[in-house]
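pasting for ref
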Amino acid sequence: MLTPPITAKKPTERSHHGDVVVDDYEWLRDKDDPAVVAHLHEENAYTNARTEKLAMLREQIFDEIKSRTRETDLSVPTREGDWWYYTRTVEGKQYGIHCRAPIAGPDDWEPPALDEHAQQHGLPGEQILLDDNAEAEGHDFYALGSFDVSTDGSRLLYGVDTEGDERYTIRVRSLAGDGASFPDEIAGTGAGALFDPSGEYLFYTTVDDAWRPDTVWRHRIGQGPDGDADAEVFHEPDEKYWIGVGLTRSRRYLVIEAGSNITSESWLLDAGDPTGEFRVVWPRTEGVEYDIEHVVAGGRDRLLIVHNDGAVNFELVSVAADDPQGPRRTLLPHDPAVRIEGVDAFRDFVALEYRREGMTRLAVACLPAQTEGAVGDVDDILHELHFDEELFTVGAGGNPEWTQPFLRLGYGSFVTPSSVYDYDVRTRQLTLRKQQPVLGEFEPDLFEQRREWATAEDGTRVPISLVYRRDLVTPGEPAPLVLYGYGSYEASMDPSFGIPRLSLLDRGVVFAIAHVRGGGELGRLWYEHGKKLHKKNTFTDFVAAGKHLVDQGWTTPSQLAAQGGSAGGLLMGAVANLAPRLFAGVLAEVPFVDPLTTILDPSLPLTVIEWDEWGDPLHDEDVYYYMKSYAPVENIHRTAYPRILAVTSLNDTRVLYVEPAKWVAKLREVGADALLKTEMAAGHGGVSGRYAAWRERAFSLAWLLDVVGAHPTGE
């Protein structure tokens, strides 16, 4: 009989608003303590022993993922300047290889054909820019956080993280001649560094002690290592705001953006003067968010701004770039049924992304001429792209060129593999450039997707998206089911295809997503009604979704598992306390299960900015007691808990490993069957490298299959 590790109790007191809490396991926070590391290794050994019976199933699932994936492949080339850029993967290699090949001529907008030769050997004239496999050699973890090529195509910058803590070292390499590296090497940066259009400067961010990107720097290429002589361009002192730096598609302006969870502010700088002063677009106003996009109308520079100032679901306006706080022209007024999410501007057209009826939408307006009315009555000339499936996800992406004649977009659903299209804005024709290959005996017609609606405690209707194999599942006859949820930050969990999920579906499992409040699927108010002092709606919505699926005969509690990660891991911890008998198992990945301890400590990464999402329990007594009433570690009680697997990463800076470690220890105090698996060389996104990621996914899927009884476990 295997017995779990004994977690030592070393009581510490936490006192706020007259409430004294004794925390026996806070000592686990010190990952430099050898006793903590030893404990995590003991937990891993116990988890491995408890799941040893699943080793064969894990290997089978890994082989299924591998055999269904085209291991040697390349992405659809994207034109930028005089080159086609793409990434190749090679069988047996963990990481991608970033490449480019020359265009045939200035009017060459047709991507090269992705034939067998291209897939195996790349495109004619290929130049390898960066081989992630070579960069990762000798490291247990590798992630690329910055990657940019100068406008003239002669220089590359890239930022690498080899710890998993999302801190990147920037290097610069010549793409001409022998490809020599510049002496520039800047450590400890945030993601998203980029060149200015001249290629003489690069802009990057650094973080404060709480891991918040707070400062933008300008570095002159060739200046040397460490950034000692770099110029501080912008500093954000308010701990609620993160900052980033970018460049408009037109390459006309450099942009600095600062944002909290509910407020944003942007600054512009003429990109022809990279050492100049940035100027504010709209001064920040608490609760007002906006995004800017540069467009040329009538030969004049204008800004398209998507904002929520008096428009809860956002509206689109146009302002003069040289007088952004001057008169606004409303292009798309607020619509309570439509959540505008973003606009992309090009020389000859604009594209609009929005949500309606819980689904993503994409529309294009072709600008007729460079006249003052070119961005005038957008509502009258928008053409929405339509797709045949009931559930789908669509969005623009991979569109770097200002003058390109088409819009590149991504499309997919539960049953349609990820697809890349080019949309000709004048002929309104969609051309499929590539669909994610699924090798083996994948038959899309065997799979069915549909939407159900659960009714929450307060009468709110909550959408649920489902997918299953119609030859293995009959609606109304209970089947094993995995219910996924997130429900925070207005993030929408839209239907998409995943090769690993086939290993569930092919074993007769139904996969479902509960689109709970706190997400953004049904507009901004759907988010507002699942945050701060409304946060419990997220949890009760998920429970209502689970009960609905049971009541409608899709599954039974003994066949139902819940899954969620990060803030969705908070959801997992909360529903395990709320409705433990509804689920056979709960998979919580990098779970935010000790939110009150975290949000009470402003010195921890991300805490202060999170007050806009959860409330400020440090200074607000009502928020404190509300959070305490749902925080998973605060509400563990004696009951028949479902089986629980918590997966975390030692170097995660977003949700610290200590949270699931404490959660599992407290669950065991009340007799729960809880396992902890810690990746010792990984960050918030888990392990790096595709094969390692497949094995990690196979581990979780095998555990889920065992929980819902979808396979013979074999003791």
